[in-house]
Amino acid sequence: MKLHKSNMRRTEAVMTRIVPTYELYGENTGRKPDFWLHCETIPSRSSLHHFEIRPHRHDSFFQILYIDSGSGEALFSDAWLPIKAQSVITVPPAQDHGFRFSRDIDGFVITVLSSHLKAIPGDRSRLGGWMASPHLTNLDMGNEDARYVAACLQRLGREFSQRRAGRNDLLDAYLTTALLLTARISSQTQEDRPAADENERRMELLHDLLQRHFKSHQPAAFYAKALGISPTHLNRIVRAATGHGAHDLIARKLVDEAKRELVFTFGSVQEIAYRLGFSDPAYFSRFFLKQAGQTPRSWRMAQRAKLGV
After folding, report:
1. What interhelical angle do 281-292 and 246-264 show, nearest 10?
2. How far apart are CA 66 and CA 294, in angstroms?
3. φ, ψ of residue 21 in degrees (nearest 5)
4. What is the pLDDT of residues 92-150, one digit of tens each?
5. Which range scores top for mean pLDDT: 4-18, 141-155, 187-201?
6. pTM for the complete prediction?
7. What is the DSSP string of 41-72?
8. What is the three-class DSSP state of 38?
């Protein structure tokens, strides 16, 4: 989308000022963040600022705005982009941005610690690459994926406001689904091409296989055989897509699941080790320490302190 020419000079003047950094817009607490995900309606905060969110950034947070109704403009770097109803805006960490909203605006602002995302903005995975830049994605409600994105983000907003059983797992599921589908819609719109090439298809199959077999601690050769390619070829494909080898990808999958269990369940470290297929809890602790830089118990305590759990 192109910059509105009438706003060129005004935009340049705005962006030459010092751009403040916030966790949540307008709040300078001086403390470390005490949440992994925060969600609020767009009017709840923007109405306090005359529906104008001045240029700012978030160093550690990824933001998603779901526009259900109303309109406005989004400022990224030096360009104002028009916002319309039924759209999703994604903003990576450290990206200067601002908004102007109409007074009938409605929707949600979701702020997520980037370290808790399935992919880190800017990494070499397909999702990480897409998340490295801001995007404004219009949702065609005639498209099944677009309708599902809207439904996920609406459900996320409702779930966040109610502290019910399974809340964190559902928030994570809604967030991940909405991001993956939005990235797919955005990429198809921008590139006007079918889904993915052969290597991307193999990576998708690999992730499916990992989800089914990660607890059995299968080696890279097992996954290569399942995909009908050599271990060397698999390693090449994984490294091109993620920047890591196949062995590292398998280990990261185990660590990610361990982290999820440590934060969102109350099982002991020993119980979690057994659930993840480790026969020796001491080996699990050494494995986790090598991969995450902390023991499982220390990592759990630090994360729960951040989240106030």
Report:
1. 110
2. 36
3. -115, 130
4. 988 889 999 999 999 999 999 888 887 777 666 777 788 888 899 999 999 999 999 99
5. 141-155
6. 0.59
7. EHHHHHGGGTTEEEEEB-SSEEEEEEEEE--E
8. strand
| Topology at the third CATH level for domain 198-307 | Arc Repressor Mutant, subunit A (1.10.10)
More confident residue, 123 or 164: 164
Residues 6+ apart with CB under 8 A from 279: none
What is the residue extent of each domain of the chain? 5-191, 198-307
Spell out the residues 6+ positions from residue 149 whose beta carbon is closer than 8 angstroms to its own. Answer: 88, 139, 177, 178, 181, 182, 185
CA 265/CA 196 separation, integer angstroms? 36
Phi, psi of 245 (to 5 degrees): -75, 170
Q: Which CATH superfamily groups domain 5-191?
A: Regulatory protein AraC (2.60.120.280)
* Residue (of 212, 211, 230) closest to 221 by Cα position: 230
Burial of 191 (0-12, 13-18, 19+ CB in 10 A): exposed
Residue listed under structure tokens 């000079």: 9
Tokens coding 14? 């705005």
How far apart CA 135 and CA 88 sit, in angstroms, is: 8
Count how many Cα atoms sit within 13 Å of the Cα of residue 292 in the half-sphere of its side chain. 26
Q: Kindly give, in sequence order, each residue whose CB lies less than 8 Å from that of residue 169, ignoring residues fewer than 6 positions away.
A: 264
